[in-house]
Structure formats: C-alpha cells, structure tokens
Design goal:
14 strands; 210 residues; 8-stranded antiparallel β-barrel; single chain; Lipocalin; alpha+beta; globular
Length: 210
C-alpha cells in the first residue's frame, strides 16, 4: 500500500470511528406497515435493529419471523399481517462493536481493508424477483420449506420445524448448511444445490406476484 493510500485508509477509518458514537443513536419512532391482500410489503425506515410490534391492526395474526420481521433498512409484513411498530431508540451496536470502536486507532488499516471488502460484497444487487416470502417442498430432505428474502439480501426461514438464516448475493443463495444457485421460474425460483445438482427445490411466491 502506498503512503497516500495508507493515509486515506487511516483517515477514512478514523472518521467512521468518530462518527459512530454521536450518529448511531436514533430516537424511537412508530411506523405502520400493512400486508394488503395478503401480499408481502417492505416498509423502509432506519431501525437500528430495534423493532417491536406495539399494536396489531389485522385480524390475521402477526408472528415475528413468520409474518413480520425487519432488518437495518426497514420492516416487512406478509400474509395479511398489519401493525404499528416501534423502531429505533438504540445505538444499533453490539458490545463487540463498541469494543472494536474503542480500539479502532490501532486497527485502522485492517478496518479500512475489511470495510472495502464488505462494501464490494454489498454492492451486488438482489434481484426483485428473489425478494419476498416463498414456499417449497424439499424432496431431498423430505420437508416443507418457507423462506423470506429481504431487499438487502438477508434471509430467514423454516425447514419443517427447524429455523435457518442466510443471504442471497446475485444468483447464489446460502440457506443454513446449504448453498444453492437460484434462477427465476414463473412466480418464484428454482434452487439447485451447489454440491449436488440432484438436490433441487422449487419455491413459489406466497400471496401472488411481486
């Protein structure tokens, strides 16, 4: 790394460290998010990874990670769930992250390199057809599967009674212990196991089109 690149990496990392404290916290606010006609809906808002359902508005039950959930960028609802959600009000930083910020001056170069790699990974778009709530049957495992993919690429779901999480990057989906190559098919997508092409799952979107 050249002297100029070193200075830029150090400066950028220290700026992030100084900004994280005063800017990370956000006052609590309330957002209303409704699944119209039982369809998936994503309501963008900064959450700081702190969201609570404070009032259910729908007759259909709202169950976290099944019919509603959230990521840093917003709240999602599906299958008729409608409610008022309290978001924000925290630093959005774990204990480990706060400790890392305290020692950031000594780790400036490592932090800058890691940040650059993470930024490149996050720039990979998640196709709109792969965002939403889907159901499928995994004949290889012999179980029903539900998966919810968020606009940022993170996902969570259930295979039978077992929960899993993962992410989508481009046409690659990591779900629990499996890695799949995915391609759009009709109102959903097909997932083919990266290690065994005979392991295929067809996922159909729940609640109509995107």
């Amino acid at each position: 790394m050249s002297g100029i690149s070193f200075q830029r990496a150090l400066s950028a990392t220290l700026c992030v460290a100084m900004a994280a404290g005063p800017l990370a916290a956000q006052a609590e606010t309330t957002i209303r998010c409704e699944s119209d006609s039982y369809r998936y809906r994503y309501c963008p808002i900064r959450t700081d990874n702190r969201v609570d359902l404070i009032h259910q508005l729908s007759k259909t039950g709202c169950r976290e990670n099944r019919t509603w959930g959230y990521d840093r960028g917003g709240v999602w609802v599906d299958q008729g769930c409608a409610g008022e959600f309290r978001v924000g009000g925290g630093s959005g930083l774990s204990h480990g992250e706060k400790t890392a910020i305290g020692a950031i001056a000594g780790l400036a170069i490592i932090g800058a390199i890691a940040s650059s790699k993470n930024s490149q990974a996050q720039q990979q778009d998640v196709s709109s057809w792969s965002v939403g709530n889907f159901s499928g049957y995994d004949s290889f495992e012999g179980t029903n599967v539900q998966v919810n993919i968020l606009p940022g690429g993170s996902l969570n779901g259930y295979a039978g009674n077992n929960s899993f999480s993962g992410y989508v990057r481009g046409n690659r989906m990591e779900a629990g212990r499996h890695v799949f190559n995915i391609s759009r098919q009709g109102n959903g997508f097909q997932a083919v196991d990266d290690r065994d092409a005979s392991h295929r799952v067809y996922f159909q979107r729940n609640g109509g089109g995107y």
